[in-house]
Design goal:
By secondary structure, the protein is an alpha/beta fold. About 35% of the residues lie in helices and about 20% in strands. The strands form four sheets. Strands 1, 2, 3, 4, 5, 18, 19, 20 and 21 form a nine-stranded mixed β-sheet that branches. Strands 9-10-11-12-13-17 form a six-stranded parallel β-sheet. Bound molecules: zinc ion (ZN). Zinc ion (ZN) binds next to loops.
């Protein structure tokens, strides 16, 4: 058989965790059709890639990506594919744009514009099936989707501050069931975002009973809003209790110790629950601070009625004062020490890269008032990231923790990438090579183990069959990299820079990156 592509002389790290070995890999159409003995001379292919002194692994799977809209606006998706990400799992935190009616699509795309960016007006996102068609063969990487709590709630009850009950709950359950039928890989929620946080724990249990039928996990951003509605006051104990009561699989998003916590302290409740039979996996990203959109600092009532009402509240002096006093008096996270990453208007574009306090000082107002003003002037189109610690020892501790967490078989990488705006968090460009390059080498972790965590592990957890391993009959999603030189080059100061040491990326048997440059080939599929 004449092959389409042969990858010769590479060191195969097959995703199982097994020791690397030398072989040729034969690709025909979209599959790996042969793993060929290195002594075999008589092989023919249209394209020969010489991988001598390079490592060949399955494509990386990012289990937490906010590229929902970025992928629709630019399918080439250089910031992801050049890291070796061949599958993006989008719609984490319950924040996504399907399934939504035309009216709710307009509403939610506005509400989410600070985190997702701005998509086209006329996309059909009325179901997961329709949404998948917007990605299928139109992106460089494969796209898998969660069924998000946000859109499902919007369809069931709008932006109303009430836990779902009765007929409205039934509606939400049937939408979730339909989403699973159409290929959603799990249920996602983020309980510092809206309308998700209008829920109580009972509502989430009811939704997870549907997930139980389809054997799908819940991917959860732990609750810090409306904690009085939650089992055990939210946080990790709420998530565990829901999984326990409904006997469902739990996946905990971006879970790692804070600067002043130990690993054992934060993992203890997880390990206790696992010992008692709860099925839990987790993810993390290798940076000391995160990124989000300002909605997360605003109390529950502010989100009621959606963007139009929010803008009215921001524009009314009295309402704005009440809002600011409530923000100061609550526990939704301290907004200081953050930096604007994404500003929609030309007028305020210069704020990108500025610290919240600097902008507040410049305007001689409080940080909270500054947030209200920018949200109003940008009509919600703004996002931020944390300011990284200045003390390098803190960085090192975070990195050490991340690598230690990744040595656990239940961990994987979720970049939490927000590839939006002029100065995004560097994780959107550098997350995977950072782990696989400088951090793996600095802390001396076995490469086979690190690769397993970012390939086979997520493929099995989210049931992406035929992916996550180098194996005969599997889809040819492949990354070829130089294990001694692979590195991220994206920094907080200069984030939009691609990594080095990843010369080739193949998606479904087609070359997406060649000699560290994107080819423009869009062979990604909506999967599974
Ligand atoms: Zn996220």
């Amino acid at each position: 058989m004449k092959l389409d592509i042969i990858i010769k002389n590479g060191n195969i790290i097959d995703g199982t965790g097994k020791k690397e070995y030398k072989s040729h890999i034969g690709i025909k159409e979209n599959k790996i059709v042969d793993i060929i003995n290195i002594g075999e001379k008589n092989i023919q292919a249209d394209k020969i890639i010489d991988a001598k002194n390079l490592s060949v692994s399955p494509g990386f799977i990012d289990v937490h990506s906010h590229a929902d809209v970025a992928l629709l606006n630019d399918g080439e998706h250089a910031n992801g594919i050049m890291q070796g990400i061949t599958t993006e799992i989008i719609a984490p935190d319950g924040l996504t744009l399907a399934p939504l009616s035309v009216k709710n699509y307009q509403l939610y795309k506005w509400y989410l514009s600070g985190i997702l960016g701005v998509p086209k007006n006329d996309l059909d996102m009325s179901s997961i099936e329709k949404a998948r068609l917007n990605y299928d063969s139109k992106t460089s990487c494969n796209v898998a989707m969660f069924a998000g709590h946000g859109p499902i709630r919007l369809e069931a009850i709008g932006m109303e501050d009430k836990p779902l009950k009765g007929k409205k709950l039934d509606h939400a359950k049937s939408l979730l069931s339909e989403s699973f039928e159409q290929g959603a890989v799990g249920f996602s929620t983020g309980l510092s975002y809206y309308p998700n946080s209008f829920s109580d724990s009972d509502e989430i249990c009811e939704l997870m009973k549907v997930a139980k039928i389809y054997d799908k996990p819940m991917s959860i951003h732990l609750r810090n809003h409306n904690t009085d509605r939650a089992f055990h006051d939210g946080g990790v104990m709420e998530a565990i209790e829901i999984a326990k009561r409904t006997e469902t699989k739990l996946h905990i998003e971006h879970y790692k110790p804070d600067f002043n916590q130990s690993i054992s302290e934060v993992l203890d409740p997880v390990d206790k629950a696992k010992d008692s039979g709860v099925d839990i996996t987790l993810e993390t990203y290798p940076y000391p601070v995160g990124s989000s959109f300002p909605q997360t600092f605003f109390p529950s009532y502010f989100h009621e009625g959606g963007p139009e009402k929010m803008i009215q509240k921001l524009n009314n002096t009295e309402e704005r004062e009440i809002l600011i006093s409530k923000m100061i008096g609550t526990h939704y996270g301290n907004p200081s020490n953050n930096v604007w990453t994404h500003i929609v208007s030309d007028k305020n574009k210069h704020l990108e890269g500025m610290l919240f306090e600097e902008v507040a000082d410049m305007w001689k107002i409080s940080v909270e008032e500054m947030l209200c003003r920018v949200m109003y002037e940008e009509s919600l189109g703004c996002g931020f990231r944390g300011a990284p610690p200045r003390n390098i020892k803190v960085w090192r501790q975070v990195e050490k923790n991340v690598m230690e967490l990744l040595s656990r078989p239940d961990y994987m990488i979720g970049s939490d990438a927000i590839p939006t705006g002029g100065l995004p968090h560097p994780r959107a460009y550098g997350c995977f090579p950072r782990v696989l390059g400088r951090l793996r080498r600095r802390y001396n972790y076995p490469i086979e183990q690190v690769i397993q965590r970012i390939t086979e592990n997520p493929a099995q957890r989210f049931n992406l069959s035929g992916r996550g391993n180098i194996k005969k009959g599997f889809f040819a999603d492949i990354v070829i990299f130089d294990q001694d030189h692979i590195n991220d080059r994206s920094s907080f100061e200069d984030p939009n820079v691609h990594p080095e040491g990843i010369p080739w990326v193949i998606v479904n048997g087609k070359i997406a990156v060649e000699n560290e440059k994107t080819t423009g080939v869009l062979s990604g599929k909506a999967i599974p």
